[in-house]
Design brief:
Blueprint: H1 3-9, E1 14-16, H2 18-26, E2 32-37, H3 46-60, E3 64-69, H4 91-105, E4 125-129, H5 131-146, H6 151-155, H7 158-165, H8 172-188, E5 192-196, H9 200-212, E6 219-223, H10 249-257, H11 264-271, H12 281-296, H13 299-314, E7 324-325, E8 331-333, H14 334-340, H15 347-355, E9 359-361, E10 364-365, E11 372-374, E12 379-383, E13 387-391
Parallel strand pairs: 2-3, 2-5, 3-4, 5-6, 7-13
Antiparallel strand pairs: 1-6, 8-11, 9-10, 9-12, 12-13
Helix pairs in contact: 5-8, 8-9, 10-12, 10-13, 11-12, 12-13, 14-15
Length: 392
C-alpha cells in the first residue's frame, strides 16, 4: 500500500470526493486538513485518537492540521447521535476542559507549545477557536447562516426524525449547529475535513456552506466509530466502556486485554500502525496492548504492564502496588462508594457491576448495591479482576 493509498484507505470509511483529493495529493498540493472538537469533557479516550491519528498522518505527509476548538459551539451542543438535547456548557467549563484536552491531544498530534504552555502555530499545525468569529459577529452571522440550510434538510437527520417520532422535540439552536460547523470550514479555508461516520451530515453541510460563500468545497474523510470494551456501544465515558488516554499503563493494558476478540483487527487498524501477526486471540491482544501502551508511554512501561497483567490475571494475585485514597464519608451505600472513589462513572454502572458479581469488599463478593459499607482502616475494594483500591 503506497503512502497516498494508506492515507485514504487505512481506517477510512468513505472519501468524498476521492478522485479529486487523490489527484491533489499526487500533484503535491499542501492541504489544510480540518478537525473540529467541542471540549465537552476534560479527558480523551482511545476512541478520540482515531481522527487524531488520521490527522497526524496528514501532518507527517507534509500537510497542515487545522484544529478547531469549538469553544462557542460547545455551548450550543452537537446533536449528533443524541436522543435528547445536550446540556449547554458555560464558558468556564469549556475553558477548564480545554486545558487538559490539548495536552492529551499532543500525545498524538505534532503540537509545539510556547513557554506559557500555549500551542504555537507551525507549518504542521494551527489551532483556532470558533468563538473568535461567532462571538464577534453575533446574531447577524447566525441569521446569515440560517438562510443557507433548509428546515427540511435538518429534519432529515436520523437523530431528529427519531426524536420527533418518539414525541420529543428539536430546538432551533440544535438545527443551527451543522451550519455553524460548516462556517468554521469557511473561516479556516479547509481543503479537507475529517470526522466519524456519525458526522457525515455535518461534514457535507460544510461543503454546502463553503459553496455558498464562493469557496472550493472541502473533501471529506469519514472514519469508523470505535466500539468500547463491551464490544457493542461506541466508546464513551457515559457508556462506561472507555479506555482513557491518560490511564496508567497497567490499567490501559488490562482494559485492552478485556476487549472482545471480534474487535482485535479493528483496534489494530484504527489505533496502531501495525498489522495483527497472530491468529491466536490472546497472543494478538497481548501484542495489541503492548503496542498501544508503548505508544503512549514507552517500551519499558509496556513490558512492565504485561508482566503485571500476567501475574494478577493469570496467577490470580493482587497488584504489587495498590493505590490508596482517603474519603470523608465513613458509611456509604456500596453503589455510592464506587462512584465516590472513582471506580465507576455513575450509579447505574456501579449497580450493574455489583449485581453481576463484579465487586468485592475485603475479598468478599457483594451483590447488593444498597448495602451499607463501613469504611475502616484500609478497606480493600476490587472491581472486576484487575481494579483494586484501598480506602480509609
Amino acid at each position: 500500500m503506497n503512502d497516498i493509498e494508506k492515507l485514504l484507505s487505512r481506517g477510512v470509511e468513505e472519501v468524498i470526493e476521492r478522485t479529486h483529493l487523490e489527484n491533489r495529493l499526487k500533484n503535491g498540493n499542501k492541504l489544510r486538513v480540518k478537525f473540529g472538537i467541542d471540549p465537552t469533557a476534560p479527558d480523551l479516550h482511545l476512541g478520540h485518537t482515531v481522527p487524531l491519528r488520521k490527522l497526524r498522518q496528514f501532518q507527517d505527509a507534509g500537510h497542515t492540521a487545522v484544529l478547531i476548538i469549538g469553544d462557542f459551539t460547545a455551548r450550543v451542543g452537537d446533536p449528533t447521535g443524541k436522543s435528547e438535547e445536550r446540556k449547554s456548557l458555560s464558558a468556564d467549563e469549556v475553558k477548564a476542559n480545554l486545558k487538559k484536552y490539548l495536552r492529551q491531544a499532543a500525545k498524538v498530534l505534532d503540537i509545539k507549545f510556547n513557554w506559557l504552555g500555549r500551542p504555537k502555530k507551525t507549518p504542521k499545525f494551527e489551532i483556532h477557536y470558533n468563538s473568535r468569529w461567532f462571538a464577534k459577529d453575533g446574531i447577524e452571522k447566525i441569521m446569515a447562516l440560517a438562510k443557507i440550510g433548509t428546515l427540511n434538510q435538518m429534519l432529515q437527520r436520523a437523530e431528529f426524525k427519531k426524536r420527533i417520532e418518539e414525541g420529543g422535540g428539536v430546538s432551533m439552536v440544535e438545527s443551527l449547529y451543522p451550519l455553524m460547523q460548516g462556517y468554521d470550514s469557511v473561516m479556516v479555508k479547509a481543503d479537507v475535513e475529517i470526522g466519524g461516520t456519525d458526522q457525515k451530515f455535518n461534514l457535507l453541510m460544510g461543503r454546502q456552506v463553503q459553496k455558498h460563500f464562493g469557496m472550493p468545497e472541502q473533501d471529506v474523510l469519514t472514519l469508523p466509530l470505535l466500539e468500547g470494551t463491551d464490544g457493542v456501544k461506541k466508546m464513551s465515558k457515559s457508556a462506561g466502556n472507555y479506555i482513557a488516554l491518560n490511564a496508567e499503563p497497567n490499567d490501559m493494558f488490562g482494559k485492552i486485554m478485556s476487549v472482545p476478540d471480534k474487535l482485535i483487527d479493528k483496534y489494530f487498524i484504527l489505533l496502531t500502525d501495525r498489522q495483527r501477526s497472530s491468529q491466536n486471540p490472546r497472543e494478538a491482544k497481548l501484542e495489541l496492548a503492548e503496542t498501544i501502551v508503548a505508544m503512549y508511554y514507552d517500551e519499558k512501561a509496556a513490558k512492565k504492564a504485561q508482566a503485571e497483567f500476567e501475574r494478577v490475571v493469570s496467577e490470580g494475585g493482587k497488584p504489587n502496588e495498590i493505590p490508596v485514597k482517603k474519603i470523608a464519608n465513613r458509611k456509604l451505600k456500596l453503589s455510592d462508594l464506587l462512584v465516590e472513589v472513582g471506580m465507576t462513572q455513575s450509579k447505574s454502572e456501579a449497580r450493574r457491576l455489583i449485581e453481576q458479581g463484579g465487586v468485592k469488599i475485603n475479598d468478599e463478593k457483594k451483590l447488593d448495591p444498597d448495602e451499607t459499607i463501613e469504611i475502616k482502616a484500609e478497606t480493600l475494594i476490587q472491581v472486576g479482576r484487575r481494579h483494586f483500591l484501598k480506602v480509609h
